[in-house]
Amino acid sequence: MNDHWSSRIGFILSSAGAAIGLGAIWKFPYMTGMNGGGAFFLLFIAFTLIIGLPLLVTEFIIGRGAQKEAVSAFKKLAPGSSWQVIGYWGIAGSFILLSFYSVVGGWVLIYSVMSLFGSVISDNANYEQLFGAITGDPLIAISGHALFLILAVIIVSFGIKAGIEKASKVMMPLLFVFFIILVIRSVTFEGAAEGLKFFLQPDFSKMTAEGILYALGQSFFALAVGFSVMVTYSSYLGKDVSLPFSAASVSIMNVFVSLLAGLAIFPVVFSFGLEPTEGPGLLFMVLPAAFAQMPFGEVFLTLFLLLFLFAIFTSAFSMLEIMTAAVTARKNYSRTKVVWASGLIVFIAGIPAALSSSALADFKIFGKTVFDASDFLVSNIMLPGGCLMMALFIGIRMDQSLMKQEFSYANNLSSGAYQLWFQIMRWLVPVTIVIVFLNSVGIIQF
């Protein structure tokens, strides 16, 4: 490989950045709000640790074991077979995901610029109306979508060490610090206790079969597993890093950020009499309301929006990287040209999602807007499908001696730990994914 991570912490922060973004900060709060609160959070934690963590270890093992990006990794590890479809599946999924992910990134970018000029927080402001005005204006939505992609492309074009890792080392620690500040302020609001109860006290009577599928999908979405993104990232990693410990670090950081997101959002939601089922716009309406109550609220809001933007960018980097690495591994094109071409194609593909709240609001796919349909396809079909194929590859095809070797590098874990991971991947992960999916489509009931 021509480019590598410079350090273990750089790899972990970059991997955490790929995982921690819209999944943990934007999507998790509204998915929790729409699916019963505490019960959803508990299921999400369980799926993350029991299913997501072993899957993350799996992607790390495949990537470093092959020392190749997504498609080439499966070609190398399973020559002459069709397993490379997992890599292509991941590229397609990352492409679709980034096409609507960057739309949300554009919204945050626009909010950030507006807040810099003091145009978000005001007396008696209607934040729901503001969000509708931004997402409902075709020119604003598309411009934000384009600008977000341009900035992401610029960073990724610098490469792994000088681009993605360098940016992640600055962005991720700052995000944690500011999130903690927001939580401290949020839980001091009058009425915050009701929000904490909703978020932390499970009520399984509110959980549906669809909600269980969403919790499983959220654990995949939030850890960035299923699309071979982490296969590509770990292919740049040396043998002196423990993959299980790195995966555990990323998973714990992800759960912690999801916890912080819930603690920051739900106390404010209940304090201000808002509905926790607001949907994707929850964060954009709740945050300004919270910061409006603080001294220097606009300043704090601006800083948090910028940090939130950093988290979104670090996830976008990974999606651009898997596409870039796949092309440059096969063609003698310059990295810069491939990144810019990828960004342009994603921009064009994302225009319908950007128009889902305006010109294409009435255009439905199975009753959903283009944005919502893309989200459902990625989170509830493609991600679980990718994870299922990954589990089958580990259980059926990959060489066990290589797996055990990669699992054991740079740690003191026993062979029992390896066997536990392998049996979870071989049996529990595929069975769980299939059962939850069959239940969600009504084929079986539980």
TrEMBL record:
Major place of residence: membrane
InterPro entries (UniProt xref): Na/ntran_symport, SNS_sf, YocR/YhdH-like
Domain of life of the source: Bacteria
Location of this chain's protein in the cell: Membrane
Gene Ontology CC: one annotated term: membrane
Keywords, comma-separated and alphabetical: Membrane, Symport, Transmembrane, Transmembrane helix, Transport
Record carries keyword Magnesium: no
Transmembrane domains' residue ranges: 9-28, 40-62, 83-110, 139-160, 172-192, 212-233, 245-274, 294-317, 338-356, 376-396, 424-444
Any GO MF annotation of the entry: symporter activity
SUPFAM superfamilies: SNF-like (SSF161070)
Membrane-topology descriptor: Multi-pass membrane protein
Family the UniProt entry places it in: Belongs to the sodium:neurotransmitter symporter (SNF) (TC 2.A.22) family.
Record protein name field: Transporter
